[in-house]
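Sample intake sheet
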Amino acid sequence: MTMISKEGLVRDLRALGVTAGMKLQVHSSMSRIGWVDGGADTVLDALMTVLTPEGTLMLPSFNHGGAYADGGCFDVASTPTSNGKIPDAFWRRADVCRGVNPTHPFAAWGKNAAYYVTHDQEAPTMGADSPLDRLMRDGGYVLLLGVGYISNTFHHLVEVGIGAPCLAPCGEVYPVRSYGGHACLAHTWSWRGGVCPVNGKPEPLYADAMRAVERRGRIGGAESMLFPMREAYTVIARTLEPYCKACAIRPRSCEYTWNASSGK
């Protein structure tokens, strides 16, 4: 097996269309990329080299609620992410900013990194003015690095934007340990209480339509896709809207569900 170098990854990223100054959100699979000299940190170094500090790199650092198993709590400074080796190496870097959403915090590096992620309690999860929405408004792109559209968190921004009734963007409230160990309450969304007929496995129904706006290529050993967020929003919304309007699935209810009338 040939070892993949940083220089090779840089070359592949540029060939796919990643450029200096780009605002880029990434989902990734380390195993699909292959045997990389230096592992996840080398992948991150390659991304940062191509983007330069004038660009912005955003990755998920979600725990999907796992931080609350067995009485635990999300700690912005120590809770690992369940999104894989590359995101888990990313948020731990000293020059990376991490949001405080209890279950779905993003992390960002580069120009205006804090602007994109650390305000996440001022916006609905995946909704207007959320990290993904801010990145899209600023001309951002998404890179699916060795993963398919089933891993594409961006389609949740579209769901919330078109008013999908299965999601409550501020539906749950959790205790968190924020910056400096400060204990507080923070909101996140209520996930749907059923299986989505559009965004389910193996690929969402919109995947074929995305060929109109995506670029495909190989980064290391990973089949990858790059697409502009604004154009993708239109493509995905066109597919989702008729299903969402007719869907009977509603948000789940759990011990963390926010009751506005009672305040708990």
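Comment: The chain has a mean pLDDT of 95. The first strand starts at residue 23 and ends at 28.
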